[in-house]
Amino acid sequence: PIQTNNLEAFWMPFTANRQFKKAPRLLVGAKDMHYTTADGRQLLDATAGLWCVNAGHCRPKITEAIATQAGQLDYAPAFQMGHPKAFELAARLVSIAPDGLDHVFFTNSGSESVDTALKIALAYQRVRGEGSRFRLIGRERGYHGVNFGGISVGGIVNNRKMFGTLLTGVDHMRHTHDPERNPYPKGATEHGAELADDLLRIATLHDPSTIAAVIVEPVAGSTGVLPPPKGYLQRLREICDQHGILLIFDEVITGYGRMGTPFAADYFGVTPDIMVTAKGLTNGVIPMGAVLVRDEIYDAFMGGGENLIEFAHGYTYSGSPIAAAAGLATLDTYKEEGLFERAQALEPVWADALHSLKGEPHVIDIRTIGLIGGVELEPIAGAPTKRAFAAFLDAFENGLMIRTTGDIIAMSPPLIVSEAQIGEIVDTLRAVLRRLQ
Ligand code: PMP
């Protein structure tokens, strides 16, 4: 049996776990849609781990590919050499990515992909003779990981406060969630495309020719599932084009079928200049991220030119053989099992199921898009997050894994979820809500 009483002495947990480290909820196994807990219970996974296990857990094809690769070529430096699987994975990624995003840079996480994308954007502007473009624009309630670039452009103020000035020249657009104009239960999608004009406000404030890039999650995930208003991303694209600003989509959550399309760019019909991905790329099994860029950006770097200062950017594990093998097997699984199409077919089933929670105790808003869902609870006065956390604990004890962010329950089941399991998720959640104080 695992001794859990002194784990805190050895393991420095996620900050969010600080107060719970003496009694960690240990997961010891997983298969398809379920986790097994240390005390032998089955949990239905309504979160795909942390929005990443899109093909479900412990899929034999993926685990076998990892084992085979580990026994064949375990590691290969990506300095002045390479190995076939990384090239093959890059080609496969380009084949499913939106037209125009034809070149891939491998990282090991979402946070690394974000910082890589910001560096590519700034360096590209210099290479093309636009070195005065040094500003990076993020958005309130944006989440872009925890590295320095990501927390600078991210919109969670508490994630920044401890770390001094961070990147300078960063500003944040207003977030798009406007319950006043999009009253529940309609969802936050009908009105508000003009909120993208907040980029114009910022551009006017600073001079648009100083802005290098804008980064947004097509659907803000970690801050509570905020689908954009209709036309918002199109408008953002137009403004970027008008002013020579690069548009970066952070698709760490929305990529790899989560929206029922390969990427959210396909769902919304808007192609960014740089696309940031991770998580579902390897089914969350092996750390890996990928940044995709347009031809002009690739050509600017590969072609050199007088403005290019040779700089090093790459990680020891960029495109490692085992990660690349996992990525290839994951993309095979998505394709062979038609999981993106499956997610698309389930989108209305998922939406109807979650919206059936309307009117349950404490529910003040419900938002769904693709196979993502958010159920916002009325906070307990003076004790924010307490009610949602109580919901998490109750669900965990009753066989359901959900995730909470603030007072919002966030869900994103593996794309293999069945209609019956969607029913089970919602039934368990309904019972949880009815027991909540
Ligand atoms: N960007 C977005 C949109 C994310 O949701 C996340 C992680 N939830 C990240 C970046 C950071 O990814 P990672 O945790 O792999 O560094």
Automatic annotation (TrEMBL):
Pfam families xref list: Aminotran_3 (PF00202)
Protein name: Beta-alanine--pyruvate transaminase
GO BP terms, alphabetized: biotin biosynthetic process
Molecular functions per Gene Ontology: adenosylmethionine-8-amino-7-oxononanoate transaminase activity; pyridoxal phosphate binding
SUPFAM superfamilies xref list: PLP-dependent transferases (SSF53383)
InterPro entries, A to Z: Aminotrans_3, Aminotrans_3_PPA_site, PyrdxlP-dep_Trfase, PyrdxlP-dep_Trfase_major, PyrdxlP-dep_Trfase_small
PANTHER family: ADENOSYLMETHIONINE-8-AMINO-7-OXONONANOATE AMINOTRANSFERASE, BETA-ALANINE--PYRUVATE AMINOTRANSFERASE
Reported cofactor(s): pyridoxal 5'-phosphate
Family affiliation: Belongs to the class-III pyridoxal-phosphate-dependent aminotransferase family.
Assigned keywords, A-Z: Aminotransferase, Pyridoxal phosphate, Pyruvate, Transferase
